[in-house]
Amino acid sequence: MKQVFAITRGMLPVDTSYCPGCTHGVAHRLIMECLEELGELDNTIAVSPIGCSIVAHQYMNIDMCESAHGRAPAVASGIRRVHPDKVVFTYQGDGDLASIGVGEIIHAAHRGEKVTTFFINNAIYGMTGGQMAPTTLLGQRATTAINGRTKESNGSPLRMCELLATIDGAVFVERVALNSPGNVRKAKKAVMKAFEVQKNGLGFSFVEFLSSCPTNWGRAPYEAMEFIKEEMIPYYPLGNFRKPEEF
């Protein structure tokens, strides 16, 4: 039978403002596809903070609100406790989650909040001008590290999956990548499992997407995909770091 491509009802029929080669749009679609397949589009509330993710509400066809920089996990925790019947997720970048919001995400995981966090790791501050982020790789250039990040001056890049996997309340932790069709298919499976963990009331779930930022990396879109494969994945290995026994 011939398969017909269809646009998910979870995405609004508008053009995005993301740069060419940016994979935010891919992540958006995967999340919305999963919610549609679960029948939860009309039962979901999402929180996006400061960063490129601040415009996500313009593209995702669900109820969304914004939070202060780094505070999405706290806002999502409150929403889920008031509305325990809702599916609640945060959509955050690495500058937001792994820097100003690192305390928020750690304690949401420690509390075992029944929410899901989608973490877009493109190893740079995207919206604000390409500054070095906690996830910027050693040797990678940024506007605040023009000669490249060094361990002596800036420490090593922060691995959030490995960190959160040590916390009992974080029951599902997985890192995926958006640089190839095969990896995108695996990413969708991780998104679906994260939502299933939440719907079953098992605790906090977390999916990290290795994503691209061609503009601030100073690379063509196809070069950005190679950067994910050749530079990011070796330092940020893909795979599951924690999951319930039934998964």
List descriptors:
alpha/beta, 36% helix, 247 residues, Rossmann fold, 17% strand, 9 helices
DSSP helix fraction: 25-40%
CATH-assigned homologous superfamily: Thiamin diphosphate (ThDP)-binding fold, Pyr/PP domains
The CATH architecture assignment turns out to be 3-Layer(aba) Sandwich
Q: What's the level 1 CATH class?
A: Alpha Beta
Shape: globular
Look up the CATH topology.
Rossmann fold
What is the count of structural domains? 1
Euclidean distance between termini CA atoms = 31 Å
Structural class per helix/strand content? Answer: alpha/beta
Plain-language structure description:
The protein is built from nine helices and seven strands; from the N terminus they run αββαβααβααβαβααβ. It has a single domain (24-242), classed as Rossmann fold, CATH 3.40.50. The chain is an alpha/beta fold and 247 residues long. β5, α7 (181-199) and β6 form a beta-alpha-beta unit.
Write a brief caption for the model.
With 247 residues, the protein is an alpha/beta fold.
Write the layout of secondary structure elements.
Elements: H1 24-38, E1 44-48, E2 63-66, H2 72-82, E3 87-93, H3 94-100, H4 102-110, E4 116-121, H5 151-154, H6 160-164, E5 170-177, H7 181-199, E6 204-210, H8 214-217, H9 221-235, E7 239-242
Parallel strand pairs: 1-2, 1-3, 3-4, 4-6, 5-6
Antiparallel strand pairs: 5-7
